Amino acid sequence: MQIPSNMIVGKIKWPGLYICLGMAAWGIVSALMAIVHNYGGLLAARIFLGFVEAIFFPGALYFLSLFYNRRQYAFRTAILYSGSQLGNAFGGLFAIAILNLEGKHGLEGWRWLFLVEGVMTTGLAIIFAFILPNSNKKILNLTEEECEWVQWNFIKDQGQEDNSDEITATRGLVLALTDVKTWLLCGTLYATYIVGAVVNFFPSVVGGLGYDRNTTYGLTAPPFILCVFCMLINGFHSDRTQERFWHVVGPLGVTLVANVIAVSTLSIGARYTAMMLLPASFYSSAVVTLSWITGSLSQPAAKRASAIALINALCNTPNIWASYLYGGAPRFLVAFIVNLAATGMAIGFAAATRVYLGRQNAKLDRGQTLGKNGPTEAQLAGNYRYLL
């Protein structure tokens, strides 16, 4: 659903409202899971949840790209991702608090969990629907002159303003599918997200250190808090220096070290250090990869929207099969060995991407055209070059 949803969001005139409506539907479906009484109902609710959830993240990445150019995007992506990581940090503790409502008004604790979090999500979505702009031409609390500056800042980098009518949504998807850059960057992010699947089992992995449930949930928070700071710093520095490759590969080097530690010892201190380093490193890399995707596949806008969703959808599939890796507690040997290999693969794809984009830039410097998958004529007129 991510791909058709982003094909829609790339063409409509009110993407901000569309994303908020999707977020509200997400909250409503989550809240309705509180009334499920059998497996069939739970399965149906989960399917609907997947439909509406698919709108948010790729849509939000595209939405940010409407307002920020390549020299600003990595830091903004890091801010967006920080919300998810703060949820990982405190979600378990928040859930424990809600589960203490067990028996109130005749409802089990797990029903309260879905109800409270679903209602909160829906309420926030309604509020944000009145705040989020739908284009860079009219932004709440900005004057007309300030909005014009936002537009100029975008055009200065891209060489053109976004035009949702430039090509059809289907044509945008075809351009994304046939672009080598899509698959090189997809390979980088896919391999990174293989390692990222450890987040789904983080309480189990940390629980392997031998602590009780509440202590375990408490110990899962610091790694994600560190992760937020590292993502923001890496994204900010990547934008400031206008460099992508080393800001992708550098954190992945830390990921390699963390996985080596996790594989080689059962020492509580050493393994918790590895757990501290893992999210901070691979997510710091991922946010820059996402900005590399958006900046390298930027025009036409319909292509950018499809590429973001296509890559994000494919790169989340490790969450399906990686669940079978995390057996053999407390060492989780197979999982961490696979993570080591995946980290190496991510570094390899990132290196291939840098070489390819460097060669594309060299062709542009020689005045050669790059065909349908290169910069548009307007971008070429603005001396567009790929960030390396």
UniProtKB/TrEMBL annotation:
Transmembrane helix as UniProt keyword: yes
Compartment list: Membrane
Main location: membrane
Keywords for this protein: Membrane, Transmembrane, Transmembrane helix, Transport
PROSITE patterns: MFS
Gene3D superfamilies xrefs: MFS general substrate transporter like domains
Superkingdom of the organism of origin: Eukaryota
Stored PANTHER family: MAJOR FACILITATOR SUPERFAMILY (MFS) PROFILE DOMAIN-CONTAINING PROTEIN, PERMEASE-RELATED
Name of the protein this chain belongs to: Major facilitator superfamily (MFS) profile domain-containing protein
Organism whose genome encodes this protein: Pyricularia oryzae
